[in-house]
Amino acid sequence: MERVYMGNEFLDIKNPDDVKGIISNFQTIKKYEAVSIENSLYRVLAEDIHATINLPPFRKVTMDGYAVISEDTFLASEDEPVKLGLLEVIGAGDVPKEIVKNGFCTEVGTGSPLPEGADSVVMVEYTEVRDGIISIHESVTMGQNIAKEGSDIGEGELLLKKGTTITPEKIGVLSAIGLKTVPVYKKPEIAVISTGNELIRYDEEIQYGKIFDINSQTISSAVTACGCIPVKTEIVKDNYNDLKRKIIECQDMDLIITSGGTSAGRGDVLRQVLDDLGEVLVHGIAVKPGKPTIIGRFENEGVDKYVVGLPGNPVAASMVFQLFFAPFLKDMASIKTKSRLRKTNTIKIPLSRRYRPAKGRKHFLLVKVDDDNAIPILKDSGAITSLAEADGYIEIGKNVEIVEKGTLVKVHPLGNW
Known about the structure:
By secondary structure, the protein is α+β, with helices and mostly antiparallel strands. 17% of the residues lie in helices and 30% in strands.
């Protein structure tokens, strides 16, 4: 562990893997709720769902045509069709009234119930109608062009597993069994607090020495992308009492994320607040950008509450969030972090120029991709435009002194939520 003196305090710099281990051990409580099927899109099932009915719930016709007794058609051919009498015409949603007997048939539509007595359907393309007589030009076998009751899934069988993300297709499956409400994991609520005397809201008039609050917007959007609900607060000044009061106000949230006030310099008060409320678990990570990240814990009614202090620089805040906290938030929301169908979407391409990283820290370098090269974006962590230019980032080990031009580097996409 490295100790770095900054201002009036030391930062105890921890290795990235140690920090990830601390985060993975956060105590979390998963909550549940029932939502209407109309509001269930992209929510995560909190229980297994079993079929409450057979699907299909009756013998269903799968082609437009004529419901017949298959043995009546065995001798049918193009030259010598079998002729059957027509009993009735039914479509999807109709209830058959007539029982099909030998020598007769019923006209049916796709999705309609199969009439009693019939055991198959002749497609309309292989028939002719004249004077109420149906000529069958092709034979069918028993069960042809029909779906048996429960052939899709039987009543009581597992339909969707707990932990499944509800997509439009899954909503169709749930609708098929008439489900009205869906048991899902409740979305964690995340407090998002921006701190700084220099910050103003986006709807305020810009003044000399002031800047618009960027982090509350970017972090809130990232929280939403992780399946959680961001609860933005008003901007908090670099003041011990104000920040402490705001954190206490947010103690019922599932997680508190602040930005700014972490670097142990003059006016940075988050460390003091966390020391007084509980304990500081992390104050400094051996990464660039993002070294002055802080993580604290305090107790609220017997439950551990966690506070994440991201750096004030927008690039550093976004990078640290994605690398360290996005996976945790997704786990809180029970969202799978990667699709089984797409295990990785990184690319390996040459670096466009020689690069010398910071010593002693793992470096996450923003790059843009052009002409199949990774081009380093050489701006400091306060330059928000570097995020606009970047296509992704590369990881450089803490003991690497120089990355030569042409070295194959793995580019990770930004926003890989």
